[in-house]
Amino acid sequence: MPPTIEADPRPLTGEPLSVDLLNTRWIDTDGRHDLLDSVDGLSAWLGSPLVHEALGGRPVPAGRDTLDRLLQARAALDALVASPAQPSAEAVDALNAVLAHGRVRHLLGSDGRPEDDAEVDEPSWLPAWSAAENWLRLLADRPDRIRPCANHECLLHFFDVSKNGTRRWCSMAGCGNRAKAQRHYARNRPA
Fold this sequence. Notes:
By secondary structure, the chain is an alpha+beta fold. The chain has seven helices and six strands.
């Protein structure tokens, strides 16, 4: 049984919800990791400030149903990032199957400003549905900015918000620095 996870141990957090869900798997010097391999990992993910805010602070049960639905959404997103330019019909259907469990209701708030309220079939669908809905927003905004890390051994993704859109690495401190070191070593290696 995996150890209890109290804090989010992932190397890259702070991405939009759908990309953050993709980043629940990563590789480091200790090997491959999957935050969602247990309900404890789900609790850590749900407890992260980004996820809490993305879900509007609404309570979500950290149980097996929520985990299974979140894994369903992650599998759909995995299939979509595998071929972003031309997603397969299966990948599209998989994401639409998650989206079918919720909707956005537009309201006028008490302050006279527009509000959006997510309604889902049951609370355990909220994280999965919210991640799928967030993916649609990223696609509508700048689909070319959803990218995998340029390190082919890295599993992480990011949404490039740089001004010129040239970000290549999940982080400069990690993968970017390793790539620079490898280039330096290759240039300065004795023949």
